[in-house]
Specification:
The structure is a single chain. This protein is of the alpha+beta class. Helix content is about 65%, strand content about 15%.
């Protein structure tokens, strides 16, 4: 009995000795996994550094808004109407209450589009004539305007003269309520599917739009350097968006640095190609009205608009790629913390290569799709390759699409390198 007890104890010790290293390894892996999970959880919360960065960005944002629009804010200027000589022009929504007369025909050569005119009686919903029932004329054809019915809402151009008389015509069908409904649906879908992250992305989207329309464009109109100002605003947008999305964490830092570097490469490449191809912002399709504004005193610099547009177009794709790679490498590291920095970088490159094909097609097709009708016109005219290839349109689209794609592609190794370095860097 004594011998059996001793032998059993020896067997237990032997088994314990065999299993102890495995348990220690397993316990160490569990502790490391928990540490990684805690680190990922902290990345989803805002620490003091993240809050400080957001506060500083908010201060810079508000100061820029006040400085740009200080004259209108302090002087209380109204932008309700524009003055043309002794006339005041308002664009106000009106509700059609009666069709007094109409002449509507269809044009067979224009795919049976409606042409003609209408005399309407409508109630003004805003401005100086709010509540009044006025006569509004509606002229429409294949390329402008549509016939309306009783109950429709239209946007009317109302010219009010100094003697109190006025005239009104339908500017367009009032699509603002319809667009507002679709925006609400868009926001709801993003929040329902994306949850808290979707809500953060919407906040970043709103800030992006405000930065572009309330800061960048007014600065360019005031004569700020086009390319430098656009790059700085885009970098600011990326910083705020990533900070809102994930706080100041190595994942968002990697994505921000990769995005900035990718946008910088897109800008440099487009500048080089612009100089070699001898083409700039003056050859853009909408540069003529801007050139006319320069003669009225507007200080916008047209030459850099081509590169500025490329930076803005590339920003979204580069942000997407950079965040996807940095986030994926965080997940890879959490799943296997033993991977070296070189192995993490290789994983990031493999992920990035799978994204190159689709994202490049996305950028090229986005640029070409914006000018699809013009391309149809070119091919309908049976233009030769030499003729078509020498047009400014082809050069502009090629420079825009290729430059943005190069910035996006180069952001992949840069983000993978930065992310793998920060992940393996000791705290």
């Amino acid at each position: 009995m004594v011998k059996n007890n001793r032998s059993n104890k020896q067997q237990n010790k032997t088994q314990a000795g065999k299993t102890a290293p495995k348990q220690i390894v397993k316990k160490g892996f569990i502790q490391q996994s928990r540490a990684e999970a805690a680190e990922m959880l902290r990345s989803e919360r805002y620490d003091k550094t993240s809050i400080l960065v957001l506060v500083v960005c908010a201060i810079v944002f508000l100061c820029a808004i006040f400085w740009i629009h200080s004259e209108a804010i302090l002087n209380g200027e109204e932008e309700m109407f524009n003055e043309y000589g002794d006339e005041q022009i308002e664009f106000q929504p009106c509700k059609v209450v009666e069709i007094v007369s109409q002449d509507i025909r269809t044009d067979e050569k224009a795919d049976d589009a409606y042409v003609g005119s209408q005399e309407l009686s409508a109630i003004v919903k805003g401005g100086k004539l709010k509540g009044d029932t006025i006569t509004v004329f509606n002229y429409f054809g294949p390329l402008s305007g549509v016939p309306v019915d009783v109950g429709d809402s239209v946007m009317a151009t109302i010219k009010i003269r100094a003697n109190g008389t006025y005239s009104a015509t339908v500017y367009e069908f009032n699509r603002i309520p319809i667009i507002a409904v679709f925006i609400v649906i868009f926001f709801a879908v993003i929040v329902l599917v994306g949850g808290r992250t979707g809500l953060k992305s919407l906040i970043g989207l709103i800030i992006t739009l405000v930065c572009l329309f309330a800061i960048l464009i007014p600065l360019l109109i005031k004569g700020a350097p086009t390319i430098f100002t656009t790059f700085v605003i885009c970098a600011f947008i990326a910083l705020v968006s990533f900070t809102i999305l994930g706080g100041i964490h190595r994942k968002t830092i990697s994505a921000f640095l990769g995005t900035t570097a990718g946008a910088l490469f897109a800008m440099i490449f487009s500048l080089v190609v612009q100089a070699v191809a001898k083409i700039d912002g003056f050859r853009l399709s909408d540069s003529e009205p801007l050139l006319q504004l320069k003669y009225t005193g507007i200080g916008i610099h047209l030459r850099g608009l081509l590169v500025a547009g490329i930076i803005i177009s590339a920003l979204g794709a580069v942000m997407d790629v950079a965040m996807s790679i940095s986030s994926a490498l965080e997940e890879v590291h959490a799943a296997n913390p033993t991977l070296s920095r070189k192995e993490l970088f290789r994983s990031g490159m493999n992920i990035g290569r799978d994204m190159v094909g689709t994202m490049t097609n996305t950028l090229i097709l986005a640029f070409l799709g914006s000018q699809f009708s013009l391309m149809i016109f070119f091919f309908a005219r049976n233009m030769t390759f030499n003729h078509l290839g020498s047009t400014a349109f082809i050069a502009l689209e090629a420079i825009s699409g290729i430059s943005a794609s190069i910035g996006m592609v180069l952001a992949i190794p840069l983000t993978a390198l930065i992310s793998s370095t920060l992940i393996k860097k000791k705290r």
